Amino acid sequence: MTEKTERIDETQIPLKRVLGLFTAILLVAGNMIGTGVFKKIVPMAATGLNEQYILLAWIVAGCITIFGAFSIAGLAQLTTASGGAYEYLRICYGNFIAYLLGWTIFVIVGSGSIAAVGFIFSQSVNSLVTIPDPLHQWSDLAVAHDIYPFAYSGVKIFSVITIALLTWTNFRGVRKSTIMNNIITSAKILGILFLILGGLISINPSFHQSPANIHIQNIQGVSFISIFFGAMLSAFWAYDGFVNAAAVTGEIKNPKRNLPIAIITGVGFVMVLYVLVNYSFMKLVPLNQLAALGENKIAATEIARIILGSKGSIFISLLIMVSTFGTLNVLILVYSRLYYRMAQENVFFASAAKVHPVYRTPHYALLYSMIWSCILVISGTYDILTNISVFNAFAFYTLLAFGLIKAKRKKILTGKIPGYPVAPILFILLTLVFLVNTLITNPKQSITGIVLTLIGIPFYYLFRNRNSKIKPVEF
């Protein structure tokens, strides 16, 4: 039996289509709902905007995200192969542009997100049960001045173990991973609904006006626009991830029908949840008090304390623990499929194109993702990487919307696309404004993100020259 297995060409084994519409919707929602919804109201309150403008920032950012969701839903009709945004860019612009996205996700965005969410999950566990710090005596030891590999060693070790265990779960089959996601995402949604209902029931009318509400009167013109976009940036962090579920297209049943429905439904549902829960937060606690919490504080903890008393902080810690654990599982699942598709197109490690003959999962792609993410956990550089990657991410999102228009004009896509052409055009215009504002207000981070993406160009030619072409599996 072993001898027979060894003769199988694992690069020609297809992924297994086992995911239905409901699971796909929960994949979209589960990837979006992380920690942002619980804490981003704090930096937004600190901007000095009033309640109406903060809600407007959530709504506008949500509408832009929905326009993007319609664009991705249209692009989802291009192919039934895995890879998501990478595959759409490859079809619309060719291998090189698609590779730059894939490189950015592997080196910066994807692995950095896995590392960051894994670390936040371990911190939430540590807030309930203290995790020993075995290497604390070396915590001040720095590498290259800014990297402290031994700081928070216990939390980092726990993060690495968690990432490894979830990678193993994903290796054992996509169905096991998505069943876990369905359960965890349902729990996250119930927790947020509890915060919404509890907050609305406990509304105190004396909180209608606060010093922070008045501050907006002094903010006008260019200054207001800059502050409003800053608030939207916080909201975008919470909305991010709506593109990722498309990476598992090769494992979704009837993807040209189910994936567009899943993306639009998932994003719309999450937007409603976010707007309602932030409305509840601001009606329960004055904006000046929320702003005074500081960026490292979690607003939802204060809300839960008001609703539940001393048990509130435990409730939120458990909710964040569940939320980050579920998000981490989805990130490990979806990003590995993108690397798998890159390898099929000869622009990643060739072995990442292999599919396990028993579990039908891209086991080498999962392994590479795990290794680099764990290195980032230990280095502690993931927050820096994810912070500077916002500009890159929205630049590629804009290219995707342009790609939809290009595909329609060249008649690569011929069917009816919901929201076309209004959704992609509005998405392009609004994201371009956002990109210009980000480049002006955060030039160092934006340019650093561009440089990190361009560093991948030599590796593109290295992969192309060293790897033998692997024929993609026909779907």
Written account of the structure:
The chain is 69% helix and 0% strand. With 475 residues, the chain is mainly alpha-helical. It is globular and about 60 Å long.
DSSP helix count?
Answer: 21
- What percentage of amino acids are in beta strands? under 5%
Give the overall silhouette: globular
User: Rg to the nearest angstrom?
Assistant: 22 Å
Oligomeric state of the chains present here: single chain
Distance between the termini: 28 Å
Give start-end ranges of low-pLDDT stretches.
1-5, 205-217
Order of helices and strands: HHHHHHHHHHHHHHHHHHHHH
**How many beta strands in the DSSP annotation?**
0
Query: How much helical structure, as a percent, in the residues?
Result: 55-70%
Largest sheet: none
Question: What is the arithmetic mean of pLDDT?
Answer: 85
Which structural category fits the helices and strands?
mainly alpha
Question: How are the elements arranged and paired?
Answer:
Blueprint lengths: L1 H5 L14 H12 L3 H4 L1 H5 L5 H25 L9 H9 L1 H34 L24 H19 L2 H28 L9 H4 L6 H19 L15 H30 L2 H6 L6 H10 L3 H33 L18 H17 L2 H7 L1 H20 L12 H20 L1 H12 L2 H10 L9
Helix pairs in contact: 2-9, 2-12, 2-15, 5-11, 5-12, 5-18, 5-19, 6-7, 6-18, 7-8, 7-15, 7-16, 7-17, 8-15, 8-16, 9-12, 9-15, 14-15, 15-16, 18-19, 19-20
